[in-house]
Amino acid sequence: MLVVDDDPALLKVLGALLTQAGLTPHPASSAKDALALLARRPIDVVLSDVRMPGMSGLELLAEVGRVWPDVPVLLMTAHGTVPLAVEAMKAGAADFVLKPFDREELLFTLRKALLRAREETPRTSGKLPDGLFVGTGRAMSEVKALLAKAALGTATVLLRGESGTGKELAARAVHEGSPRHAGPFVKLHCASLPDTLLESELFGYEKGAFTGAATRKPGRVELAHGGTLFLDEIGDVSQAVQVKLLRVLQEREFERLGGTQTVKVDVRFVAATHQPLEDLVRRGTFREDLFYRLNVVPLWLPSLRERPEDIEPLSRHFLDVHAKTNGRPPFTLSADGLAALQAEPWPGNVRQLQNFLERLVVLSDGPTLTGADVARELSRQPGLAPPPVAAPSPTADSGTLESRRKDVEKDALVDALKRAGDNRTLAARLLGISRRTLYNKLEEHGLL
Fold first, then answer.
1. Which of 17, 73, 137, 156 is buried deepest, with most CB atoms within 10 A?
2. Start and end of every Sigma-54 factor interaction domain (predicted)?
3. How far, in Å, CA of 21 to CA of 29, rounded?
């Protein structure tokens, strides 16, 4: 959102309001500044005052319409200048808002403009935004292709996989590659909140709903209207909240806490979990009907162990990023340094690799990171070392890191097949990998 007004106090108020609603405001104190900002970054909607020194809001409207015809412009005007607002609508303004404005009316008008712009310029093919995912291996290529297909529809997406595999990035990719990309992307980490707070964060509350509720507050479901709501760690939601979530997924309606009015929403849901939801359903801790509502389009994100070919581009990417953010000169990675990183199992996946590389950037002298640097930092972080194998196979290289990794991996495969009653589809889900990866691993370890 580009917000244009010569009143700094109003810019601050609007910035806080839009941020709270899940939108990203970019303030400009003049039409000239607004045009410069439009030239530098993509903007979905312009909200501008009409009367400003220098170039007026109407002149800004004409210039935006000439250079950026797909960007809707909303104008703010005082009660005494309604005829001017009518003139603005005739000149091509998407809508206008009277000052002093009502909060809910303003947000409704903005979202209406976003939805109209989306409908007039729909995406005809799923295209993921560049830079979200690093890696060109087969596993990630398959994931990108599936995400692009899923983005085109409106069905609920359930992202599965171990912690640290990039489920939030995948959810954002689904949103950005969808026809809803102009709408808000709202996220909520379900595991970080107790039940009472989670419910109010999801559905909002009315004034007086409980002690301290001094005003009405919209919830994340309502803020995501016209866009996407990402529910992270959905497996940790209590059954009481599951019931209310089920209704929203089925009916696209809810009531705020302490309210009686039914609120209808147009929201796409993307959920994520690292937990085996099938096991939770069997144990009775997760509703079966909710599971099927969420599991419309299931997507499995591969662990870093399944995409070792991506460790090199990921490492170089994170080294560049962390060198810049920490004010360090560029770092390079030697051949033995890369080999040392590739030999690690990385149970925490991409997130763990990223954090480890940031520590290397901060604590190393540089500019070249070697195998010795990696080994030194690993020794300082004993939790990263692979667990010892009690009974390694009696081969010449039984003590090597690679042989131990293979032994642990084989044991995990055997255990998963046993727990799944030799059902390979279920075994793949228990391991957090795709069926194709499971078959490759079974063949590699002679278990087919």
1. 73
2. 133-362
3. 22
The Cα angle at residue 68 between residues 64 and 74, in degrees rounded to 5: 50
What is the fold of 305-384?
Helicase, Ruva Protein; domain 3 (1.10.8)
d(CA 34, CA 13): 18
Give the residue, 121 or 360, on which the prediction is more confident: 360
User: Structural domain boundaries of the chain?
Assistant: 2-120, 138-302, 305-384, 401-444
pLDDT at residue 364, as a whole number:
84
Mean pLDDT, rounded, for 82-100 = 74
Give the integer Cα–Cα distance in Å for 31 and 42: 16
Q: Compute the distance between CA of residue 137 and CA of residue 145 in angstroms, rounded to an integer.
A: 12
Provide the CATH number for the domain formed by 2-120 in this structure: 3.40.50.2300
DSSP secondary structure string, 222-235?
HHTTTSEEEEETGG
Helix (H, G, I), strand (E, B) or coil at 187: strand
Residue whose C-alpha is closest to residue 156's, from 296, 37, 303, 311: 296
Mean pLDDT over 139-165 rounds to: 88
**How big, in percent rounded to 5, are the helix, strand and coil portions of the chain?**
50, 15, 35
| Least confident span in 52-66, 243-257, 258-272 | 52-66
Contacts of 65 (CB under 8 A, 6+ apart): 73, 92
| Residues in Cβ contact with 179 at an 8 Å cutoff, skipping those fewer than 6 apart | 118, 122, 123, 152
User: Residues with Cβ < 8 Å from 90, sequence gap 6 or more?
Assistant: none
* Residue 427 structure tokens: 């075994």
In this structure, the number of other CB atoms found within 10 A of the CB of residue 372 comes to 12
Distances (CA, A) of 177 to 17, 127, 151, 173: 26, 5, 5, 6
Residues 6+ apart with CB under 8 A from 202: 188, 219, 220, 221, 241, 244, 245
pLDDT at 119: 58
32's tokens: 């000239």
- Give the chain's largest Cα–Cα span: 90
Residues with Cβ within 8 Å of 398's Cβ and at least 6 positions away in sequence, in order, are 392
Q: Does 16 have pLDDT greater than 70?
A: yes
